[in-house]
Design goal:
The protein is mainly α and about 375 residues long. The protein has one domain. About 65% of the residues lie in helices and about 0% in strands. The chain has a two-stranded antiparallel ribbon with strand order 1-2. Pathway: Cell wall biogenesis; peptidoglycan biosynthesis. Keywords: Cell cycle, Cell division, Cell membrane, Cell shape, Cell wall biogenesis/degradation, Magnesium, Membrane, Metal-binding, Peptidoglycan synthesis, Transferase, Transmembrane, Transmembrane helix. It is an enzyme of class 2 (transferase).
Length: about 375
């Protein structure tokens, strides 16, 4: 419990207090945010706002995680699962940083090409996937991930290893890539209004803080394999610690990212937190449940897909005034703060529903 408090508190304080220095540095380096010319005209006043703020909250989250462990010492050791989440977070932050840096150098809203960005995400997700099948815990015998697709826990009849060891591993890697690329890009799409993606992610992380801690309390190696609904998840407490660290860091970032934003997270931040959510879903064996917990991200991404598909089918007609859907409400005259708060409420509802589904799944097991 002490590690949780220290990790979250340090990460929050680090991001909150360090961000002003980062904002001044970015101004000096000229890393201002380019604004897409086809976006809402009200966004043009944001041109030049410091970006790549994700660098600070990623560093804050990683530092908070390690300092939380340093304070408690050997009683709560660093685990393979926690390090895998750090790998995903930092790896996708690096991909996002390349994209942001390219944008600022060219001073246009397009950085890496779509395939270049996806290529970077695939490399990180593939390394994560393969490592997650290794590092078997000597006591419980569990690896950080399994080859079974999961919802509340692993679904036995969706164990990809049933296809054979070679095809099974290939299918598993493809599944992890699909999940990682989808979630990280979904958060990236949602990051279009001041504080929107930040607040929504804090709420989604709150669900994983509950899930990780509950799995720790109900772990089979703690309560006994015969206990009702016990969880076979490796290192759930450490997954909770890294979740708290990132949530705390994002709370500190929200102070500066709330409307009117003094700094944007950039792709550096959005890809990192999207990848982290994906990693937490994989390692807590709640992959399909992420569809519910991250329901707002699904809506945002779905609005883009529907808009483009309808535009092509009808040869130029649109369902929404603009996608993602938060821009649709902007063009209808809603204030940005109003959209953000209402979407946070939606994100909170999805979080509550996701936690409720998880708990009911445990009760019925």
């Amino acid at each position: 419990m002490i590690a949780l408090i220290v990790a979250g508190a340090f990460a929050l304080a680090f991001t909150l207090l360090t961000m002003p220095f980062f904002i001044r540095l970015v101004h000096r380096l000229g890393w201002g945010q380019p604004i897409r010319v086809d976006g809402p005209t009200t966004h043009q006043i944001k041109r030049g706002t410091p970006t790549m703020g994700g660098l600070v909250f990623v560093i804050g989250a990683v530092a908070g995680y390690f300092i939380g462990h340093l304070v408690v010492g050997a009683s709560t050791p660093i685990t393979a699962s926690g390090l895998l989440v750090v790998l995903m977070m930092v790896g996708l932050a690096a991909v996002g940083f390349l994209d942001d840096f390219t944008k600022t150098r060219r001073q246009q809203s397009l950085g890496l090409t779509g395939w270049q960005k996806i290529g970077g995400q695939v490399v990180v997700a593939t390394v994560f996937a393969l490592l997650a099948l290794l590092f078997r815990d000597p006591e419980s015998g569990l690896t950080p991930a399994t080859a079974a697709i999961s919802a509340i826990r692993d679904i036995g009849w969706l164990n990809l290893m049933a296809l054979g060891p070679v095809i099974g591993v290939i299918a598993y890697v493809l599944w992890i890539n699909l999940l990682t690329v989808s979630v990280s890009n979904a958060v990236n799409v949602t990051d279009g209004l001041d504080g929107l993606a930040t607040g929504a992610t804090i709420l989604a992380l709150s669900a994983y803080i509950f899930i990780g801690f509950f799995q720790f309390k109900q772990a089979c190696h703690n309560v006994g394999a015969s206990a009702r609904g016990c969880f076979e998840v490796r290192d759930p407490l450490d997954l909770t610690i890294i979740s708290v660290a990132l949530a705390g860091s994002l709370v500190g970032f929200l102070w500066w990212n709330a409307s009117p934003a003094q700094v944007f997270m950039g792709d550096t931040g959005s890809l990192a937190i999207g990848g982290t959510l994906g990693a937490l879903a994989i390692l807590t064996h709640t992959e399909l449940l992420l569809i519910v917990i991250g329901g707002l991200f699904i809506i945002e991404t779905g609005s883009v897909i529907i808009q483009r598909a309808y535009f092509k089918v009808t040869h130029g007609r649109r369902i929404f005034r603009m996608s993602p859907i938060h821009h649709h409400f902007e063009l209808k005259g809603w204030e940005q703060v109003t959209i953000t708060i209402r979407f946070w409420i939606l994100a909170g509802l999805f979080m509550v529903i996701g936690v409720g589904v998880f708990y009911l799944g445990w009760l019925s097991s």
